[in-house]
């Protein structure tokens, strides 16, 4: 083939695969969508990779078929067959690489979400039009966790190596306390698209009837049409008017102390009236 021997053909094939892989990765890097959100850069494209299917069946088949063709061509003296087999195997390997390269870890996804809510107190003060001196009755309490419902265009789910289901949507609720009222600010956002929801609420202590926790479930069907169940925990503040504020809690063990502190404050405020 073109007067080239087997070693030369192999080198050409490897060079073609390397150059092709580089060009594709370079193109993908340029088309990544990065938005500055909440004072931090949100790399939507990279976060999306976390939720992509990690099924490598097709790529593995390509590697096996390519390997068989390569061996048959090499042993039969057919340089053309050998190079075709090498290219097919290379494509399979590249497909695996492109799916795994740059994919965030569980901890990185968690940290991405936490970075977006670390300045939530300042945002809550701004949304309520409050000064910090007005809400010094108690320390602010923040609950946050993955939000397993749609914000605008649905959400994706992925179970991590720690068996925790993560969603492409996240929510955080912060409570601020004045002498007479509790102020709430809710912020929900996507980590794969520019979508968010915000809301503010305020209640007099006398109107709050309960602060409770609950275990919840969410069912969905994956790409294989299998029904999966997500178990998660939440906090709920309920008023005498029947309204309520709820928040997903990522780590209930860490949140229990804050919840008990809020309950104690509410009891004290009610008993002092």
**Number of strand segments:** 11
Instruction: Describe the sheet with the most strands.
Output: 4 strands, antiparallel
Strand content: 25-35%
> Gyration radius, to the nearest Å?
27 Å
Q: Give the terminus-to-terminus CA distance.
A: 94 Å
Q: Roughly what percent helix? A: 40-55%
User: What is the structural class?
Assistant: alpha+beta
Order of helices and strands: HEEHHHHHEEEEEEEEEH
- What coarse outline follows from CA principal-axis ratios? elongated
User: Mean of the pLDDT scores?
Assistant: 82
Number of helices: 7
Number of domains: 2
Low-pLDDT residue spans? 27-32
Report on the architecture of this protein:
With 273 residues, this protein is of the alpha+beta class. It is built from seven helices and eleven strands. The protein has helices at residues 6-30, 44-50, 57-76, 79-100, 106-117, 120-128, 252-271; strands at residues 34-37, 40-43, 138-146, 157-159, 165-167, 169-177, 181-190, 196-204, 208-221, 227-239, 244-249. The chain is elongated. The N and C termini lie far apart (94 Å).
In short:
This protein has seven helices and eleven strands. Helix content is 42%, strand content 31%. The longest helix has 25 residues, at 6-30.
Provide tags for this entry.
273 residues, alpha+beta, 2 domains, four-stranded antiparallel β-sheet, 7 helices, 11 strands, elongated
């Amino acid at each position: 083939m073109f007067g080239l021997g087997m070693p030369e053909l192999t080198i050409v094939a490897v060079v073609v695969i390397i150059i092709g892989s580089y060009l594709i990765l370079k193109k993908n890097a340029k088309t990544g969508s990065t938005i500055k959100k909440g004072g931090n850069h949100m790399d939507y494209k990279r976060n999306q990779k976390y939720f992509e299917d990690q099924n490598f069946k097709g790529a593995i088949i390509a590697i096996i078929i390519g390997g068989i063709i390569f061996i048959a061509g090499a042993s039969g003296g057919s340089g053309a067959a050998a190079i075709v087999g090498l290219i097919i195997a290379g494509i399979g390997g590249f497909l695996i690489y492109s799916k795994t390269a740059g994919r965030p870890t569980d901890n990185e996804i968690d940290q991405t979400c936490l970075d977006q809510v670390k300045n939530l107190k300042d945002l809550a003060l701004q949304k309520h039009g409050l000064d910090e001196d007005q809400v010094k009755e108690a320390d602010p309490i923040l609950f946050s966790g993955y939000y397993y419902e749609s914000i605008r265009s649905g959400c994706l789910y992925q179970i991590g190596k720690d068996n925790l289901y993560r969603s492409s949507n996240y929510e955080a609720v912060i409570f601020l306390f004045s002498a007479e009222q509790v102020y709430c600010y809710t912020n929900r956002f996507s980590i794969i698209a520019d979508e968010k929801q915000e809301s503010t609420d305020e209640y007099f202590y006398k109107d709050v009837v309960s602060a409770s926790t609950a275990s919840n479930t969410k069912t969905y069907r994956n790409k294989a049409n299998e029904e999966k169940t997500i178990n998660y925990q939440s906090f709920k503040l309920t008023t005498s008017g029947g309204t309520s504020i709820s928040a997903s809690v990522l780590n209930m063990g860490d949140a229990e102390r804050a919840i008990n502190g809020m309950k104690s404050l509410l009891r004290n405020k009610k008993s002092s009236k």
